Amino acid sequence: MQNIGFIGTGIMGAAMVRNLMQAGFSVTVNTRTKEKADALLAEGAYWANSIAACVKDKDAVITIVGYPQDVEQVYFGKAGILENADKNSLLIDMTTSRPQLAERIYTAAGEYGLFALDAPVTGGEPKAVAGALTIMAGGDKAAFDRAMPLFSAMGENIRYLGKAGNGQHCKMANQIGIAGALSGVCEALAYANAVGLNAQQTFDTIKTGSAQSTQMELMGSKIITHDDSPSFYLKHIRKDLQIAMDELEARQSELPMAKFVCNAYAELEQQGFGDCGSQSLYRFYER
User: Fold this and answer.
1) DSSP 219-283
2) Are strands 60-63 and 26-30 parallel, antiparallel or unpaired?
3) 119, 184, 205, 273: which could form a disulfide with 268 (CB 3.0–4.6 Å)?
4) Structural contact between residues 19 and 6, judged by C-beta atoms closer than 8 angstroms
């Protein structure tokens, strides 16, 4: 497996393409705005003007786009991946999307003689750049085994989770865990401010104790300095948590913390913070 089509070259996708090329794969890219791929093209990636051109004569096609509606548009229809990929191609959607959509793609792929995996990732831009992502895959085990050389170029913690859709369900659990940890960091620092503690001193004190977490390590300093720069967009974690809330509602269940954080993110997105980083949750506590 050498020739790869890659659709979506945003913060995560661009780093993933670079790691695939460094591992020796030939990568052809397609994205809505070609300028976003210019740096990759200068580094050796090939450009395709359409999805159909991007997937033609490819051993595998990887997608990582923004929202479930983008996934649907990319995969279905006359101009989409399913209609244009070569028979026996491996299709890997690494977008965080709806589990039911992953199941639809898996079923449709089989009807076209294709093989599909849902394989969302976590780790943010730093681990994408380092090729150290966590990859959560659902689909047939044989397809997962076939994808391992690709996954190994992009990630370190690579997990097969069973049937189609299970990769997406695991990603929902991951996002719920992030929401709780990040809201904890925001509330700890909000408390420090409220009682007159020095936020930086408080952070330096608690970050190595039992309150330590990846979110505290990555986001604490940004929260203290009011740095909204994104390594993961607020609008995207809001989208992910809403998917999880919809899954729970369909099962007549509820997770209060995750629902609270989802609603807080929705409010912030309406206020114009969607393109800020996920750590901008702290702004909710500054109201």
Assistant:
1) HHHHHHTT----SSBHHHHHHHHHHHHHHHHHTT---HHHHHHHHHHHHHIIIIITTSBGGGGHH
2) unpaired
3) 273
4) no
Dihedrals φ, ψ of 80, to 5°?
-90, 180
pLDDT number for residue 273: 97
Beta strand 115-118 with 133-139 is antiparallel
* Residue 274 CA, distance from chain mean position: 15
- The rounded distance, in Å, linking the Cα atoms of 83 and 108 is 10
Output the six-digit token pair for 187. 């509330």
**Phi/psi-derived region of residue 82, left when phi > 0, alpha when psi is between -120 and 50, beta in every other case:** alpha
The answer to whether the beta carbons of residues 274 and 235 sit under 8 Å apart is yes
Are 20 and 154 within 8 A, CB to CB? Answer: yes
141 catalytically annotated: no
Tokens 């904890």 locate to: 184
Q: Say which of 36, 127, 141, 171 is annotated catalytic.
A: 171
User: Which residues have a Cβ under 8 Å from the Cβ of 25 and sit 6 or more positions away?
Assistant: 1, 2, 3, 4, 150, 153
Beta-carbon count within 10 A of 203 CB: 20
Average per-residue pLDDT in the chain?
96
Contact 257, 179 (CB under 8 A): yes
Which candidate, 183, 161, 7, 155, places its Cα nearest to that of 81? 7
Domains of the chain in start order, with CATH, are: 3-164 (3.40.50.720), 169-285 (1.10.1040.10)
pLDDT tens, position by position, 209-242: 999 999 999 999 999 999 999 988 999 999 999 9
